[in-house]
Specification:
single chain, 209 residues, mainly alpha, three-stranded antiparallel β-sheet, 3 strands, globular, DUF2017 family protein, AosR
Length: 209
């Protein structure tokens, strides 16, 4: 696998078929996660047909704080004040879920469109980078990554080859190593894409055009 690099007017990364398949699965998992526990548009539509105020009340009651820690990473509380948080979620969460899902589907399309090279045009780069960030957040939560030391431990895990006797649950260790590899791949893609985006910014003080 190669991170993003600039080729002509596009940003290009290279993934093999197995890497692409794994990333597609992870992206689909995050799309499904964002769809869970969201406001029910069908229910609100039925309520609006009978009485507009019922629809507004249902919208306020539908939005709950996510119970899944990974989903809370994607949709964090806006305040320590529960009332402020609840109101913010009521007003913004549906749109935020929609925007994040749109970004993820754009990433999915970029992964599906490629044979080897994943091509991202500069105008799409911010959305793709945001999607990569969200997917990495979910994977890091599943791995319980909280600090830089936790992240460094993942890189050590991938590079090490412990003896079976050193592992209490070999199957869990294999699963964690696999997920850690996914995290590292996502990190490389996200960081290399953001670096190219930053390089494309005009220098401070430069004249427009």
């Amino acid at each position: 696998m190669q991170g993003f690099r600039r080729e002509g007017d596009a940003y290009v990364a290279r993934l093999d078929a197995a890497e692409r398949a794994v990333l597609l699965d992870v992206v689909d998992d995050v799309v499904s996660l964002l769809a869970e526990g969201g406001p029910s548009s069908v229910a609100r539509g039925r309520a609006a047909a009978s009485h507009p105020l019922d629809a507004l009340r249902m919208e306020a009651e539908d939005v709950q704080t996510p119970t899944d820690p990974a989903l809370r990473r994607l949709l964090p509380d806006a305040s320590v004040d529960p009332e402020v948080t609840a109101e913010f979620r009521r007003l913004t969460e549906a749109d935020l879920r929609t925007a994040k899902t749109d970004h993820l589907l754009r990433l999915r399309a970029a992964l599906m469109a490629a044979s080897l090279d994943v091509v991202v045009v500069p105008s799409e780069a911010p959305r793709i980078a945001a999607a990569l960030t969200d997917v990495r957040l979910v994977v890091s939560e599943r791995l319980e990554v909280r600090t830089d030391a936790d992240a460094d431990a993942l890189y050590h895990l991938i590079g090490s080859d412990p003896e079976p006797s050193d592992v209490a649950d070999p199957r869990a260790q294999v699963a964690r190593r696999f997920l850690a590899t996914v995290y590292v791949v996502l990190s490389l893609l996200q960081e290399s894409l953001v670096e190219l985006m930053l390089e494309a910014l005009p220098e401070v003080g430069s004249e427009p055009g």
